[in-house]
Amino acid sequence: MAPLEDLERDYPIIDSNFRMFCASHGIFTDTDFLLHDLSALEAFARQDYAPDKLEQGIKQMISIIESGQRPWLNGVELLEDSQLNKCTLSTGCEGIDILLQGGLREGHVTELVGPSCSGKTQICLKSASHVARNSLGKVVYFDTGNSFSPKRVAQFLSLLSDPSATQTNKAVERDMSSIVCHSVFDIFTLLDMLRQLMNNLRSQISFQVRMLIIDSLSSLIAPVLGGGGAHGHALMATAGFLLKEIAHESNLCVVVTNHMVAGEAGMLKPALGESWKSIPHVRLLLSGKYSATGTRITILKHPYLASGKSADFVVL
């Protein structure tokens, strides 16, 4: 979170006049700027006595935010990072865990891509249940479409319990309390909540969090990408940066889902497009086609495993 005044040395357009204009709209940092409705801000700028300069400043701020990224690491630093004790968290789906050699990796952002009803949400719910039961940690679940089903989670947890145990209901209630679900319906709220989560993790308020799930990330970002404007891409880049920062700093397993839309010749493609695909560490494609052996899942991208490998899985 950088104050706007710290940017003037490198970007003279971010001068005192531009900062006064931003301050009049409650904008004092780059984060404040990103969380503001830029369409409204541009409309106010056009009413100013120096609209051209203010619009240049707005474009400069978008460029600064979009280009923000982690400093380059040398080969030794990258090797050390890869050798850290980063565990894999089981999804509870045997086929997926075998394909990924243990499950979802902590410190990574894993994206589930697939058409509607392909099983993305079920994998999220199953993974959350498995982590809550077996990993002695919390799961933060951001639900963007009212798809979180506590009954389904309770069902998964009941299946993980010993049928002969007399304390099954208490165990289910205990484990469900480890899954914290928040409803999020716009990208601005998501960014704000990610900032809060990062601050909590840094201050160890939520140090027991093991997994963060956003189902679905694309439903929040896709609407602001329309029209080809830079603002939507800046929002997407910032969301991706925050997710990778949270995963890396706190060694969390981050899982996001991305729906599919019609592309050229009616072919389905991921909704977030080409600019997004380089952000997740891992991309997994769910076919949406069911067979006697389950649903097919394919590795599109993975830092350690070969792309193209597939497996069938069943969410019980």
From TrEMBL:
GO terms for biological process: DNA recombination; DNA repair. Involved in the homologous recombination repair (HRR) pathway of double-stranded DNA breaks arising during DNA replication or induced by DNA-damaging agents. Belongs to the RecA family. RAD51 subfamily. It is found in: Nucleus. GO terms for cellular component: nucleus. The keyword Nucleotide-binding applies. InterPro entries: HRR_RAD51_Paralog, P-loop_NTPase, Rad51_C, Rad51D_C, RecA_ATP-bd. Keywords: ATP-binding, DNA damage, DNA recombination, DNA repair, DNA-binding, Nucleotide-binding, Nucleus. CDD domains: Rad51D. This is DNA repair protein RAD51 4-like isoform X1. The keyword rRNA-binding does not apply. Residues 85-260 form the RecA family profile domain. It holds the Pfam family Rad51. GO terms for molecular function: ATP binding; DNA binding.
